[in-house]
Amino acid sequence: MKTNRVIIIALVVLLVAGGAYYLFQGKNVDNSRVINIAIETDPDSFDPNQSVAAATVEIAFNIYEGLVKATADGNVVGALATHWEVDETETVYTFYLREAIFHNGQPLTVEDVVNALERVRDPQIAQGKADEYQVIESITPLDENTIQIKLSQPYGPFLFNLADFAASIYPKDATGLDANPIGTGPYKFEEWRANQYVKLVRFDDHWSGEQPHFEEVYFKIIPEMASAVISLKAGHVDLIPRLDPSFHHQVVDEEDLKVIPGPMNLVQIIALNNSRPPFNDPRVRQALALAIDKQEVITGAAWGLGDPLYSAISPAMATFFNEELAEVNAYDPERAKALLEEAGYSNLSFTFELPAPYPLHVNAGEIVAQQWAKIGVDVEIRIVEWGTWLERIYSQRDYDATIVGLAGRMDPHLILVRYQTNSSRNFFNFKNERYDELIAQGLVTSGEERIAIYHEAQEILAKEVAGVFVMDPNQLAVMQKDIQGWLNYPIYVVDVAKLSR
Fold it and tell me: 256-282 burial by CB neighbour count: b if 16+ within 10 A, else e?
């Protein structure tokens, strides 16, 4: 008896050490006002000027607000601004603030807005984000409830930029936002236990006067999707916002669960370091693209639940998606071999780094490596932790090849600018003068002309193989059957305020 007890205790200790503590949490006796949401990684930072991880925005969307906010149908509406006006030159925006209270009890002021927006356009503070706000020429309070923002030129995505997490408003004297966020949103931050959970509580003084159904929200950090699914089935988790497609068959027939599919507006890309040999040779990049059977990758890594991509825009953005690029670099392994031989790389080898917390990308990367092997390319697969990926690969651009999902944005410019030569987010190190010109032109045009510009820009990315665009996987939100109100956004968020039980 004693021996059995020791074995059980040891097993529990091992599971806790391995991060499986959540499997042993009992069901809440009364959980109608508490929701448990499974996410794969810890936030990187809750400071809007510092965070670069899409997973952080899932949580922060409920804490912070900007002057405007995104809606599930891809539009922008007022948040901390009741309304706004734009002059005839489309360079002067006047915003009218509503009465609102921060989570620390301080009232919202125009000084808070000025401070937050000045910081996000300062490259020394908002590294990696300030580029998108350089168009702001001045930010001027007109009175205690009105603020005027002047732009250096017309800028199509401006309102979408203001809806971004980076442009969130917080108290001007706030410090330590990375670990203690203070916003005006429907939920306020209460606790963050690294590698365990982030806890939010309902903010009953929200300016809307509405009270969301859930009083407490736990974003549980569960790196292994298999563990998240087990926890969901056991009732310890209520919602997995982004189920890995390979687990779809495990939940789709569960009578206590429901799956809500929708477009993810995510671009899975194999990034090739364009500045590092041999990837600085476009023939090598094209050969690697030609060797990939995208449908096989989608079937094998996403259970067929995804759409093939040909460039940097997802079909979820139907107006701007260039569907004519389907035959560019279509699967042709023999042509791939010939290009490698022509480029002098008949025995090509390199390191292919896959981000550990994302099984979709790891599985896709392993399939791609097998396809490359068929044309004589030898890759060393290296699984890297997410923090390492963000620091070394994304920030320092120290890598050969990697695979990742680039989260969708509300405006095509905010997606395509990633590949502009001087963009701080161009970790591909892609350079093309014509492309840079098109991105600049797209900012000051509209209608059919803007669509044509972005179609040409996508064509350049595809033909020059800035990277290998693989798929937009379906977003599969799986939840307990009694959870209501799920909204599928074109950006990486979970709108808890709309959920109920």
Answer: ebbeebbbbbbbbbbbbbbeeebbebe
- Of 272, 277, 301, 303, the closest CA to residue 289 belongs to 272
Separation in Å, CA 188 to CA 65, 81, 163, 198, 327:
11, 20, 19, 11, 49
The tokens of 195 are what? 């590698």
Cα–Cα distance, 45 to 63 (Å, whole number): 13
The chain-wide mean pLDDT, for the chain, equals: 92
Query: According to the 3-state scheme, what is the secondary structure of 135-180?
Result: CEEEEEEEECCEEEEEECCCCCCHHHHHCCHHHCECCCCCCCCCCC
φ, ψ at 290 (rounded to 5°): -65, -25
Q: In Å, how far from its chain's centre is CA 341?
A: 37
- Tens digits of per-residue pLDDT, 23-33? 444 444 357 89
HEC-encoded secondary structure of 211-255: CCCCCEEEEEECCCHHHHHHHHHHCCCCEECCCCHHHHHHHCCCC
Is the Cβ–Cβ distance between 422 and 435 less than 8 Å? no
243 vs 261: CA distance, rounded Å? 10
| SS3 state at 414 | helix
Q: Tell me how far the alpha carbon of residue 82 is from its chain's centroid.
A: 27
- The answer to whether the beta carbons of residues 23 and 231 sit under 8 Å apart is yes
Reply yes or no on whether the pLDDT at 256 is more than 50: yes
- Sign of the torsion angle spanned by Cα atoms 447, 452, 455, 456: negative
Q: CB burial class (10 A; 0-12, 13-18, 19+) of residue 487? A: middle
Neighbouring residues of 215: CB distance < 8 A, sequence distance ≥ 6? 33, 34, 201, 202
Domains and CATH numbers, the chain: 30-46+178-263+476-498 (3.40.190.10), 63-167 (3.90.76.10), 266-474 (3.10.105.10)
pLDDT at 430: 98
pLDDT for res 73: 80
Strand partners, 180: none
Kindly tell me if the per-residue pLDDT of 212 is higher than 80: yes
Decide: 272 and 283 in contact? Cβ < 8 Å.
no
Query: Which of 72-76, 284-288, 372-376 is predicted with the least confidence, judged by mean pLDDT?
Result: 72-76
Distance separating alpha carbons of residues 229 and 38, to the nearest angstrom: 9
User: What is the C-alpha to C-alpha distance for residues 429 and 399, in angstroms, rounded to an integer?
Assistant: 11
Burial 113-129 (b: 16+ CB within 10 A, else e): bbbbbebbbeeeebebb
Tens digits of residue pLDDT in 313-328 = 998 888 889 999 999 9
